Amino acid sequence: MSQDLPRIPLLINGRLVPSRTTEWRPVINPATQERLAWVPMATADEVRDAVAAAQAAFATWRKTPIGQRARIFLKYQQLIRDNIKSLAATLTAEQGKTLADAEGDVFRGLEVVEHAANIGSLQMGERAHNVASGVDTYTLLQPLGVCAGITPFNFPAMIPLWMFPMAIACGNTFVLKPSEQDPMVTMRLVELALEAGIPPGVLNVVHGGEDVVNALCDHADIKAISFVGSTRVGTHVYQRATLAGKRVQCMMGAKNHAVVLPDAHKEQTLNALVGAAFGAAGQRCMAVSVAVLVGAAREWIPRIVEKARGLTVGAGTGAGTDVGPVISCAAKERVEALIARGTDEGATLELDGRLPPLDGQLKEGNFVGPTIFSGVKPGMSLYEQEIFGPVLCIAEAATLDEAIAFINANPNGNGTAIFTQSGAAARRFEEDIDVGQVGINVPIPVPVPLFSFTGSRASKLGDLGPYGKQVVTFYTQTKTVTARWFDDHGVSGGVNTTISLR
Questions:
Q1: Residue 292 sits in a domain of what CATH number?
Q2: How far apart are CA 312 and CA 322, in angstroms?
Q3: Taxonomically, which superkingdom (predicted)?
Q4: Residue 402 half-sphere exposure toward CB, CA atoms < 13 A
C-alpha cells in the first residue's frame, strides 16, 4: 500500500481516528485510474465503538431543546453553501460526474439540511382537549435512539444528507456507512457537520463492505436503518435488519420509463429525454432508461440519436463535458456486456457508445458513451436489468393505454414521466400508472424536501420514504398520553371498574 496517499479516517465519538484494520482499499478517480486515497474496512470492534458512542450520546442529545438542534442545521447549511465548489471538486474527482452535476448533487442534499432546520414545525404532535370529563389526550414524537445509514456511490453528497440531518434533528444519534468507492466528499460533509456544532457521538462514521453492513443490521442497539442502493443489497439489508427487530427503509433498483405522446413539445421533450438518460453517465436510480414512443412519436428516433451523438464524453473536470465515466472498471465491463447482449437478443443498436474517442490518460478511464437501442421488448436483458450506465432503450406503443399497461407490467416503481400537451392524457396517466413518482413534462420527478421520495413496488422496501414528512415519522416513535388532573377540592366518585373515562 502506497504510503504517500491519505488514509481516510473513521469518526467515533467526535474524533477523526485512524482505523486499526489491516484491510484497505483504494479510492480511484474513474476518469484516469489515479489512486486518490485509501479507505479502511473497519473492524468489528470499531463498528461496536461507533455504536457505543452513539448510544452514550443519545442520553443527552434526546433531551437537547429542539431550537438548539435546529440552529445547528441553520449553521450547517451555510457551511455547505460556502464550500459547495470545493465539495463538488472532490466529488467529481472520486465519482466522475461533471462539476455542474456534482454541485447539483450537493445542492439537493443542502435542501434537506435546510428542511432539517425547520424541525420545530415538523416534529409537532397532536392534542385533543376534554376528550372525556377533565381528560386531555396528546401525542409526543420522540426519537428512537441510534439509527444507521448505508449510502451508495452515485450520490455521495446528496444521499448521506438525506439521512443523518433529519435523523439527528429528530433527536436520534447516527452511524453512517458511506460507499467505500467514493467516501471523501462524504467525510468532508461530516467534518462540516462537526464544525456546525453536532456534539461528540451524535454522528459517527464507519467504512467498509459487507461485514460492516451486516454488523449494523445485527447490532441490538441500532433501532432503524436507512438504505439506498441496489435491489440485491437492499433486499438483504431489509430482511436481515427487520429480522433483528429494526425499522428499515430501502430505496432500491429501478427501470424508469418516459412516455412520449405525439403532441408533446418536440424540442423540449428530446432535450429532456437525452439529458435524463445520459446525465451522470446514467448512474441515477431515477434516470430515464426506457423511452416509450407512442404513435407518431415513433418517428422521433433519428432526432434522439442525433442529440445523443452530440454529447461530449470526458472527464467531469473538462469544460463542456456532458457524460463522465462510470464508477469502476467492473461497471464499464458490465455495461459493455449488456450492450453486446442487446444486439444478440434482437434489439437494434442505433448508437454505440463503446470505445469513445479519448486522448491521453483518459484512455484508461471507465468511459462508455451514449448508447441507444430501439425495438427493445420485455424479456431482453437490456429491459429486464437495471443497466446503470448511459444506455437508453426505446420501446413503442400504439396508444397511451398500451404504454400504461407496458409500464405497469414492469416490477419496478421508482419513477416515470409523460410528455404531452394534453391535460386529459396527463391526468389519466397519473391516475392509472402504478409508479411511486410521476413527472408530467418533467423527466426526473424527484420531489423537493417538503414532500418525500416515494418510490414503490420492487423499487422500495418499507412503508416510509426518506426526507420530508414521512421520514419524521420513520425517525420518531409516537407516544400517546391521556391525562386527568384534579384540584384540591375534587371529590372522588368511588372505585370505577369499567373501561370508561367518564
A1: 3.40.309.10
A2: 5
A3: Bacteria
A4: 11
Instruction: Identify which of 187, 152, 165, 255 has the alpha carbon closest to the alpha carbon of residue 466.
Output: 165
109, 110, 112, 118 alpha-carbon torsion, rounded to 10°: 170
Q: What is the CATH number of the domain that holds 176?
A: 3.40.605.10
Number of domains in the chain: 2
User: What is the grid cell recorded at 436?
Assistant: 411511486
Asked whether residue 502 is assigned to any structural domain, the reply reads no
CA within 13 Å, CB half, 480: 4
Residue 386 and residue 255 in contact, taking contact as beta carbons nearer than 8 Å: yes
For residues 218 and 266, membership in a common domain is answered with: no
Catalytic residue among 250, 285, 329, 393: 285
Amino acid at 176: L
DSSP 8: P
Q: Are residues 398 and 306 in the same domain?
A: yes
Q: Which domain holds residue 290?
A: 257-440
Per the CB < 8 A criterion, the answer to whether 22 and 41 are in contact is: no
C-alpha distances (whole Å) from 241 to each of 220, 435, 450, 475 are: 10, 26, 28, 15
- Over its length of 502 residues, how does the chain's per-residue pLDDT go in tens digits? 566 899 999 999 999 999 999 999 999 999 999 999 999 999 999 999 999 999 999 999 999 999 999 999 999 999 999 999 999 999 999 999 999 999 999 999 999 999 999 999 999 999 999 999 899 999 999 999 999 999 999 999 999 999 999 999 999 999 999 999 999 999 999 999 999 999 999 999 999 999 999 999 999 999 999 999 999 999 999 999 999 999 999 999 999 999 999 999 999 999 999 999 999 999 999 999 999 999 999 999 999 999 999 999 999 999 999 999 999 999 999 999 999 999 999 999 999 999 999 999 999 999 999 999 999 999 999 999 999 999 999 999 999 999 999 999 999 999 999 999 999 999 999 999 999 999 999 999 999 999 999 999 999 999 999 999 999 999 999 999 999 998 877 556 688 788 776 6
Residues 6+ apart with CB under 8 A from 147: 167, 172, 173, 174, 175, 222, 223, 224, 225, 226, 475
Cβ atoms < 10 Å from Cβ of 224: 24
pTM: 0.96
Residue carrying the nine cell digits 474517442: 357
Which residues of 22-170 form beta strands (DSSP E)?
A: 24-28, 35-40, 127-132, 135-143, 146-150
449 within some domain: no
> Which triple of cell numbers denotes residue 373?
437501442
**DSSP H or E run through 277:** helix 266-278
The answer to whether residue 48 is domain-embedded is yes
